[in-house]
Design a protein that fits this description.
single chain, 373 residues, alpha/beta, Rossmann fold, globular
């Protein structure tokens, strides 16, 4: 079966990126003939033909439309049995809603008026066309929360939306890493064995709840607690907030790292009190590493957590609830939390993810497509 995967450039070390790379490896191992339709920034992928499409880089609106049009042209000439898009495009058999609903995102962030901005308006229009099944035969949500939001906001029939969770590399992310890297990474970051270290990993600081986490940190006033923030974004507003609470010496900001598994190895807990997060592979990576996770019910990844054992799920990501959740996690026995976290992550394999897509491919293969495909 010849399959096209439409996806922006990815590496093999980020969260969403490793999920896509792992899926591609598993599909290739099963004998699928896979083309990856991406842009010039995409590197080679073993066993996959990479078709690099011409796309305008700026402005954002032109980049969105040029990629969608280039992908449609490539699909029409490719002779594919299945076209699966991880991006908002103009025609595909399967749309994987890895970013959830853009309208849902704007509402969650209190930016509903931004729908009238030309870029956001176009994204919402393309997305509505997808979720109304005018350019797509089936939707894949990456969590039950994601599925429910799509059906509620866009009226997509439930039988046309499947949930297929991301996978995680259970060898790369493993509790044994603590013995290999914990002391060295802590020393590198100026941390000691006595410190109780909470790790925040991810880009998009506002959406992922860093503001509430910093505010909670200011209220806790625990002298041996340290917060490490690793991600891409502007840290200055959060540095300022930490200084205003007088806790800047207990908060460390670092750049994104390829060896993120080593950061998990030095952490006692990972915190992701997200305002909007369709899934968040940080949940799986941390738990696979034996590290419990504090998250919010607004994150699809909360569905992977055994509340009170492998992590803590907040009803709302307010500073007070974040502080209470961290205090609760601090009281859980470390060995018990490590074992529970690992158990929670183990079902989320690339094999299980590929199984879900393979079933969907079989159900769609050979069926008539709409003209837009």
């Amino acid at each position: 079966m010849k399959v096209a995967i439409i996806c922006r450039p990815f590496s093999f070390f980020g969260g969403v990126e490793t999920a896509t790379a792992g899926l591609l490896r598993e599909l290739v191992s099963r004998g699928y003939d896979v083309d990856l339709l991406s842009t010039a920034g995409q590197g080679d992928v073993p066993g996959v033909r990479v078709r690099r499409l011409p796309v305008f880089r700026q402005p954002s609106l032109l980049r969105l439309l040029s990629f969608a049009l280039a992908a449609r042209a490539a699909v029409r000439s490719g002779g594919y049995d299945i076209v699966q898009s991880h991006e908002r495009c103009l025609g595909q058999d399967i749309y994987r809603a890895g970013e959830g609903s853009h309208r849902g995102y704007l509402l969650a962030m209190g930016r509903d008026r931004a729908q009238w901005n030309p870029f956001h308006r176009t994204v919402c229009a393309v997305e509505e066309r997808i979720f109304q099944l005018r350019s797509t035969r089936h939707i894949v949500a990456i969590s039950r929360r994601d599925k429910a939001e799509i059906e509620r906001l866009h009226g997509t029939p439930g039988e046309r939306v499947s949930v297929i969770y991301n996978g995680v590399d259970l060898e790369r992310f493993h509790p044994d890493n603590a013995g290999r890297y914990r002391q060295a990474i802590r020393a590198e970051l100026g941390l000691t064995d006595r410190d109780w270290v909470v790790l925040f990993v991810g880009s998009g600081f506002e959406r992922k709840g860093l503001g509430a986490l910093i505010s909670a940190w200011g209220a806790l006033r625990e002298p041996d607690w340290r917060l490490v923030v690793a991600g891409k974004g502007d840290p200055e507003p959060y540095r300022h907030r930490a200084r205003s609470f007088g806790i800047d010496e207990r908060v460390c900001f670092i750049s994104p790292r390829r060896d993120v598994e080593r950061l998990y190895a030095m952490a006692d807990t990972v915190a992701l009190p997200a305002l909007y997060e369709p899934f968040g592979n940080v949940h799986l990576e941390a738990q696979a590493s034996g590290v419990p996770v504090l998250t919010s019910a607004r994150a699809g990844g909360a569905e992977s957590i055994d509340h009170g054992a492998s992590g803590w799920v907040l009803n709302e990501p307010s500073p007070a609830m974040v502080a209470a959740g961290l205090e609760a996690l601090r009281e859980i026995d470390g060995t018990r939390a490590r074992d529970a976290a690992r158990r929670s992550a183990e079902p989320f394999t690339y094999v299980a993810q590929a199984d879900g897509f393979a079933r969907l491919y079989r159900s769609l293969a050979g069926k008539e497509r709409k003209p837009s495909n």
